[in-house]
Sequence to fold (201 residues):
Amino acid sequence: MTPPTSALPLAKAALDHPPTATGQRRLVLKRRAWLVGVLLLGVGCARMATAGPPSKMAGFIIICVLFYPLTLVVTFLALRRTRRNAAILKTYPWRAYPCEYPHRSVESPKVIMIKFTDDHAPILRFTPFSVYLKEKQNPQPEMIWFAGDIRYGGVVSPVGGHFPVRVVPDAPREAVPDGTLAEDELAERAELVKGGKVRTT
Fold:
């Protein structure tokens, strides 16, 4: 059973919460398996491309040359992004906030609006892939657990911390509340900001 919102873990970092650590490991394993699958696909494509006469395989070879490198890069980057998730979860604790899921067209990236304060309720975009988090083992869709900096994004999960997902500001140029020097240093350590620039991946 997933704990209620009031049962936020007392751990100093979200990654110290066992369901979160399990969810993060599951994410890493899923993306590693995906990378292995893409590498095996590349081997299969190479074998097929050399199996027949080049004149008959020209179209297939062109498609492979155009699309396979892009697929490989996207898969590799998605796996690397899990390290950023881990850095955020090691730096910040879970906090609970009210949230909404603004409706967008099917083609648009999925987003969440988190009400951090009465004056600051930004729209955050899921990255690197869209997730309809409202339906992901979510016992309280009107609440969200958040680990990160309210100015720059972080990681969210349905109540319970079991499904961590990276979120970034949907409109990073919007005005954000001022932060303290300690908050700025924390954001740099968690890789939310690098050289004063907000990381949007």
